[in-house]
Amino acid sequence: MSVRLRGRQDLPLVGGTFAYLRDPLTFMRDQAARHGAVSEMDFVGSRWTVLLGPDACGEALRNADKAFASGPGWGRLVGPFFDRGLMLLDFEEHHRHRRLLQAAFTRDRLEGYTAALGPAVARGLDRWDAGADFAVYPALKDLTLDLATQVFMGADDRTDPDELRAVNEAFVACVQAATAVVRLPLPGTRWGRALRGRRLLEDHLGRRLDERRTGGGDDIFSVLCRLSQDGEQLSDADVVNHMIFLLMAAHDTSTITVSTVMQYLGQHPAWQDRLRAEAADLDEQPTLEELDGLVSFDLVLKEALRLVPPVPVLARRTVKDTEVLGVPVPAGRLTAVMIHLQHHDEALWPEPERFDPERFSVDRREDKVHRHAWEPFGGGVHKCLGMFFAGAEVKLILHQLLRRYSWTVPTDYRARLGYASLPVPLDGQPVDLHALERTP
Ligand code: HEM
Hints:
- It is a single chain.
- By secondary structure, this protein is α+β, with helices and mostly antiparallel strands.
- The chain has helices at residues 17-22, 24-35, 54-62, 71-78, 91-102, 107-125, 136-152, 161-177, 190-206, 209-215, 220-226, 236-267, 269-280, 288-292, 295-307, 339-342, 387-404, and strands at 38-43, 46-52, 68-69, 134-135, 228-229, 232-233, 314-318, 322-324, 327-329, 334-338, 405-408, 417-418, 424-425, 430-435.
- A 5-stranded mixed beta sheet has the order 1-2-10-7-3.
- α12 crosses α15 (295-307).
- The chain is globular.
- The structure holds protoporphyrin IX containing FE.
């Protein structure tokens, strides 16, 4: 039996686009209430199947009949700029590349990255100028970009600062183009800038492959260059493609997470003090093992990722006819796996809009109520490869922030988030940032 599903299609082609961009959570609630867990909508010019709730989203992510492909779904959104990154590969090829890349994210490797990240965070924070209404989001974005060039790409004091600036600008252009309205390589457009940026990144990384292969460095780029398993290696083009994607996957996601945590800690001083007390027990440059022991940090991080998942919707496209919860989805259909809604579902989380990190504590574990209740890192074979790296990076930044500053945010402040790509605070997220006396 073929069921023709209808979602909100008030306007041809754009359908739910504006409603989603204005307020995604309200849009998702409304869509689920009117049309159920599996429905359709038009979004930026294409017809999408929309999956809402833990059962529907979980089914697509588990992908038991291999009907949902990630590459042709995400490719529609992130354009040609992150082509052939891990998330854009599928099935057998994805499996092969993921096995190889996992070797760059082992515990040993993470310990090395943590040791390099700590001093780089300190250097970045040394440039912060505390004060009232400090726009925390752009400052964090600059910081994580610096971390990316140092710890991912291995830039150091010998790297030409002009070239580094050009690389940073090229990377930012690629990220911004994912939200471009004009998707043509015309002069002066975001799309055109991003295509030039992509070429610059390819050239910059490509020229350094040989030196990184033999140089013995511990940055992610050098590690990728040397990866090999069962005689298999990444080609030069693979290394470049994976690097460009990793930079993107790590950048905004971690920035959004830290800025969300800063907002909630600014509004909940008791939690801020509790984390600061934990941070005070460690040295300025903690090891990975010490970071693992920061229990209150973990609770707050999980709650921030629940309230504002940095990747609220995952994109897929069906490669064959399939069904979700018994509802048919035709081959070739773009599919939006809207994990955001289940993070705010009253049926799963008591008082879902309340900041309550203890809900993740051992005696409560509210996330265990459903296998797919909490999914900020996705699920199934494409689950975030950098999850533990992200945990270490975010904790290192927070650890140093808490030792250097205290901050406040008005309790009625709600960040106005732009959802054109990932959820970024449109006002830069101001906080009143006060420098603390530092022990020499
Ligand atoms: C808080 C920070 C982060 C969040 C919330 C996050 C979230 C996600 C999500 C939801 C996916 C799955 C996408 C999908 O299934 O369509 C994903 C994939 C991925 N992430 Fe992350 N991410 C974060 C940080 C990072 C970092 C720091 C790295 C690298 C160092 C990274 C590398 C990747 C990679 C390589 C994939 C693709 C995995 C695959 O397709 O096999 N992520 N991430």
